[in-house]
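User: structure tokens for this one?
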Amino acid sequence: MRKPLVATLALALVGVLVAGCGDDDGGGNGGVEADGGDGEGLAVALTDFEFSPDELEGAAGETVPIQLENTGAARHTFSGDGVDEEVGPGDSATVEVTLPDSGNFDFFCRFHQGQGMVGSITTGAAPAADTPATSAPSGGGTPGY
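Assistant:
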């Protein structure tokens, strides 16, 4: 009788631990947003053989620090336009990436790109500083008539 009780308790403990490991922030950035002046930047884990997360968002034209952590057993790189950082198993590094004014900053692992180890940071065009967010109709009439 003792063995089933121990097995049941062990299974219940595993269930609690797994439930606590879920990602419930709903964001694609692993809970870390692009640098909005607070210095946080982005965080990316390099695993065997993918980036996590592999789709991020950032502010157009900004230079953003990205914390890299290799949680896998193999050596990986974070490579893209002007960036090529090699990170060994269990190591971490920080790179700075200047995001385009619009579009994507695509990144990859030089060693495992052919195995699908690729990712992207999507940016949107930043609004011009002298452009008002909304404009009032001229002529005092009702808009659209």
